[in-house]
Amino acid sequence: MNRPGLFLVLEGSEGSGKSTLLEPLASRIRDAGEEPVVVREPGTTRAAEFARQALLDPEHTLGPVAELFFYLAARADLVQTVIRPALAAGRVVLSDRFALSTEAYQMAGRGLPPEVVLPANSAAADRLVPDLTLILDLPPAVGQARQVAAGKRLDRLDRESAEFHRRVIEFYLAVRGDGVRHLDGCLPPDRLLQAAWAEVVAVAPGRFAAG
Ligand SMILES: Nc1ncnc2c1ncn2[C@@H]1O[C@H](COP(=O)(O)OP(=O)(O)O)[C@@H](O)[C@H]1O
Ligand SMILES: [Mg+2]
Description:
This protein is an alpha/beta fold. The protein has helices at residues 18-31, 46-56, 64-88, 99-109, 114-124, 140-149, 162-174, 189-203; strands at 6-11, 37-40, 92-96, 132-137, 180-184. It has one domain (6-203): P-loop containing nucleotide triphosphate hydrolases (Rossmann fold, 3-Layer(aba) Sandwich), CATH 3.40.50.300. Helices cover 52% and strands 12% of the residues. The longest helix has 25 residues, at 64-88. The two termini are 24 Å apart. The relative contact order is 0.20. Adenosine-5'-diphosphate binds at residues 12, 14-20, 146-147, 150, 187-189, 192.
């Protein structure tokens, strides 16, 4: 079988429902006859999981540039060792976050200049652009309330200011582009899955049967 790979990404602020949607969406892809390669950022590879630990530990006082390069090191390793090979083998790759997160958090959130972030980000992603990016839109207070309700232990990023999270969310809301679709993160999980699946089918016509 010689068909191209398909790269699908879930994006959105903390608590917007990415990780919750990931498994049911992967399952829907399986039902349609393909075993997806499921990854999360930062992480998945051994080296990238080290970076994840460094990034999330509330004891670490990373500056914005140190933080940027931990994320990019994690991404470069994941792209090189997992995502590129999977796509080259014609697989469907489903990722919890990708390069757009760096634009949202490091540029919009931290205020690092685009001329620093964008070329480095593109290099870390090995110029790879997702076929479909699903952004889960959610008002800031809702994401936070969900995390509190779930009793999540707040990591280094969760502890950032409300203003930081507001900038991130506003960035996500404004993103437009080829292969970018916004979904209403306030939908109940089954409706969200339905909406996400419709977008996946639409971006890869002929690959999956709708339904
Ligand atoms: N569609 C949804 N409706 C209501 N609650 C949700 C929905 N999706 C996720 N949640 C809840 O919100 C919290 C954060 O979800 P999660 O998937 O971990 O978000 P993210 O990975 O985007 O940070 C979890 O407690 C989860 O159970
Ligand atoms: Mg998550």
